[in-house]
Write a structure and sequence with these properties.
This protein is α+β, with helices and mostly antiparallel strands. It has 21 helices and 22 strands.
Length: about 575
């Protein structure tokens, strides 16, 4: 919240009149003008706001509360107040009679650049009110709802009046805020800096890494990961994806890298794409010539054989065939070309790091003045080399930006050090000797593997112990755990299936969101004892050692993790089961 000095500076920046400033000061210093109430179709309540340092009332669980979530986490919102003092609305009724009455909006909001009253209503309710009287609520040509009498009152004091519809709610964003709710209150002092650095470096070195891949890393603390997302130290498109479906969530180091990744993934072939480079001349490929589809059946040293769908076979001299390609009369299959382009581009993106993206952005800014036809200055050799790479990528992929990405990952000898037969033998050995109920240790299995390689005919050169352990780790998961520890131990590693609806999840989308209460009468009978229940039977006027019958157990089970959170034992039947 703003202190007095900050508030006065904000008022001067907005050039508010004394009357407008007085209205805002009254709102800031007053308690809510009314208490909200619930009804049959709405659930009211109070939200503990960290931004405001108090509770904020809401009348609708799926409308005003959703708006509170957005206001609470919008950095441009400085303050917001529920149920501000009533304002006077003056408008004509449908019959032409002049209406004048006091009205209490839902919120008064102070942003960095404006201040306004706001009324929250459902789209259905606004349509009904518009039919009853368009002078009260109407939708203008801008597609937004307006309240003309509210705006007239607000404009008279240098302020504004907004109408907020539930059609504006982004339920992905709402669900993600609820998911991260517990992490907004974390203090940075209790977060291990080493764990932070590990996560940030992992995201920084793997462009487009998913939340699932991060969570599967045993060295990463999930709580620290979610805290970094909640505090904007890592960037996630919270408006587009759901954290409850981590396989669809891409995590980036910042928004700029996310935008670059999104830009690169929207690669499409352009009209400038060169047919000669894209067209692959190989036996079995299809080409189009004069509207007919031909299959390449032979690529000789002097001629190329083409077979039409009706069985007609022709041979073209290679010089004539190349000339037809250069003039655009022979083109390749567009579907095959597009898929090949996207596959090649995806491979480049896959191996690009965040540093590569930053460097590519820097190179693009430097060569952009030299991409025009009329050059103002002769470029240096470095600029010419980058421009050539840009133009070549534009010709091949339809996106020159790809050519500016550094290819540091392609440097060095990255061919596998072990042959395919040794690799296959190692994987079979792991299946037969490590993934068994005997639960042998890795080092012991590796010793047996080395001996097996030496006695094999012909003998294999065994890979290193590190390579062997990495191969075991790559096979880790539900299948390996089930082979070694059994079905029950592997249950926790089974894939989890989520409900598709956003507002009514079947079993929740996070721990402690939904719990199931189960009342069960236990199949045992208990007898009172003098040591433990004397006071109880004195109070109930029962005799000692009396048969108390079958007790009731009430279980509270977390619907997400399926863990029992609490058990309550009683000899009285639950209220809803009593007759």
């Amino acid at each position: 919240m703003l202190d007095n000095l900050e508030f006065n500076n904000w008022c001067r920046q907005q050039d508010l009149s004394q009357a407008g400033q007085a209205i805002i000061e009254e709102i800031r210093s007053s308690n809510p003008s009314r208490r909200v109430t619930g009804a049959r179709k709405n659930v009211c309540g109070s939200y503990p706001s960290r931004k405001m340092g108090c509770t904020i009332q809401f009348e609708s669980h799926h409308n005003e509360l959703a708006r509170i979530y957005e206001l609470e986490h919008d950095p441009c919102v400085l303050e917001y107040y529920d149920q501000p003092p009533a304002i006077e609305l003056v408008y004509q009724s449908k019959s032409g009679r002049k209406n004048r009455h006091q009205y209490t909006p839902d919120f008064f909001i102070i942003r960095t650049d404006s201040a306004f009253w706001e009324e929250c209503k459902t789209e259905l309710e606004l349509n009904k009110l518009n039919e009853l009287n368009s002078n009260r609520y109407c939708k203008n040509s801008d597609g937004k709802w307006h309240c003309p009498p509210g705006e007239e009152y607000a404009h008279g004091h240098g302020l504004d009046f907004h109408v907020w519809s539930d059609a504006l709610i982004n339920w992905n964003f709402q669900q993600n805020l609820i998911w991260l709710l517990d992490y907004f209150g974390y203090s940075s002092e209790i977060i291990d800096e080493t764990e932070q650095s590990l996560i940030v470096n992992t995201v920084n070195n793997h462009l487009g890494i998913t939340l699932t891949e991060l969570l599967q890393n045993e060295e990463i603390n999930p709580d620290v990961l979610y805290w970094l997302i909640a505090t904007d130290k890592l960037y996630v498109e919270l408006n587009k994806v759901k954290l409850s479906q981590p396989e669809t969530v891409f995590v980036f180091i910042n928004q700029d890298v996310a935008l670059s990744y999104e830009h690169l993934n929207s690669i499409e072939s352009t009209t400038q794409t060169g047919n000669q480079i894209l067209l692959q001349i190989a036996v079995g490929n299809n080409i189009y010539w004069d509207g007919e589809s031909w299959e390449i059946v032979n690529t000789g040293t002097t001629t190329t054989g083409l077979l039409r769908a009706d069985g007609k076979l022709i041979e073209l001299p290679n010089l004539a065939f190349t000339a037809l390609i250069d003039t655009g009369k022979i083109v390749g299959d567009k579907t095959t070309q597009t898929s090949n382009i996207k596959a090649a581009a995806a491979e480049i993106i896959k191996h690009a790091t965040c540093e590569d993206i930053i460097e590519a952005n820097r190179r693009y800014n430097l060569i952009q003045p030299y991409l025009e036809d009329a050059l103002k200055a002769y470029p240096s050799s470095t600029i010419r080399r980058w421009r050539t790479q840009y133009q070549k990528a534009l010709l091949i992929y339809g996106q020159g930006y790809l050519g500016l990405l550094p290819k540091h990952n392609n440097k060095g000898n990255r061919t596998p050090k072990i042959d395919s037969q040794t690799q296959e033998f190692m994987l079979d050995f792991i299946k037969e000797h490590y993934e068994t109920p005997k639960q042998r240790r890795k080092i012991r299995v590796y010793e047996s593997f080395v001996l097996a390689c030496q006695t094999h005919d012909p003998p294999f050169k065994p890979p290193s112990r590190i390579t062997f352990c990495q191969a075991i780790k790559q096979r880790s998961g539900h299948h390996q755990t089930r082979k070694r520890l059994g079905n029950r131990a592997a249950i926790s590693e089974e894939p989890f299936y989520w409900e598709l609806k956003q507002t009514t999840p079947r079993h929740g989308s996070r721990p402690f969101e939904i719990v199931h209460i189960d009342h069960t009468q236990i199949d045992i009978e208990l007898v009172s004892s003098l040591e433990s229940l004397t006071n109880y039977h004195i109070a109930t006027n029962n005799s000692i050692h009396q048969n108390l019958g079958r007790p009731w157990a009430t279980f509270m089970v977390d619907a997400y993790s399926r863990r029992i959170l609490s058990v309550y034992l009683t000899f009285d039947a639950p209220t809803q089961l009593r007759t």
